[in-house]
Amino acid sequence: MYIIKRLIPIGILLLLFNLTSQAQKIEFEKVSARKFQSLILKDNNHLLIDVSRTIDHLEGHIPGAIFAETSEKLFSILDTIPISRPILIYCKYGKRSQKASWLIAEKYPHKVFALKEGIENWKARGFNVTNTANSLKVRLTK
Fold it and tell me: Among residues 95, 88, 101, which one has the least CA distance to residue 127?
């Protein structure tokens, strides 16, 4: 009985340690429009992904963004890129990109940056948007 009483707290500590280390692996950073722009300009190795709905994407998106409306499309893109590429992700208001960031962080070891308050905040700050179909082309080099 004494041994069991000693092992239970150790087992609980090991379980908590494991859960804590799992939680630490699931990370992404929500960043301001200004910081998001600086990340785009700073690193040509990033992957810029728009997870907006189709109608929102057609209204305007950040130049060079890859459109991934569904999680299946998002994962098919992520399955083909090196883990060293940081992911910059956004949507119209920031909710879909936050959910997508959690999904990415759970499945992939990429560094993920989500645009706070989405492209609406981006546009309000005067940053460039486009509505061309060029973003539908996937550039998977590097």
Answer: 88
Helix (H) / strand (E) element for 14: namely helix 2-25
Contact 83, 110 (CB under 8 A): yes
pLDDT digits (tens, 9 = 90+) for 36-46: 999 999 978 89
Contacts of 82 (CB under 8 A, 6+ apart): 142
At a CB cut-off of 8 Å and minimum separation 6, what does 88 contact?
A: 36, 39, 40, 46, 47, 48, 49, 113, 115
What is the C-alpha radius of gyration for the chain, rounded to an integer number of angstroms? 19
- Residue-wise pLDDT for 49-96, tens only, equals 999 999 999 999 999 999 999 989 999 998 988 888 899 999 999 999
- Could you report how far apart the first and last alpha carbons of the chain are, in Å? 60
Give the percent of the chain with pLDDT over 70.
74
Residue 61 pairs with which residues in a beta bridge? 130
Q: Which of 60, 64, 74 is nearest to 122 (CA)?
A: 60
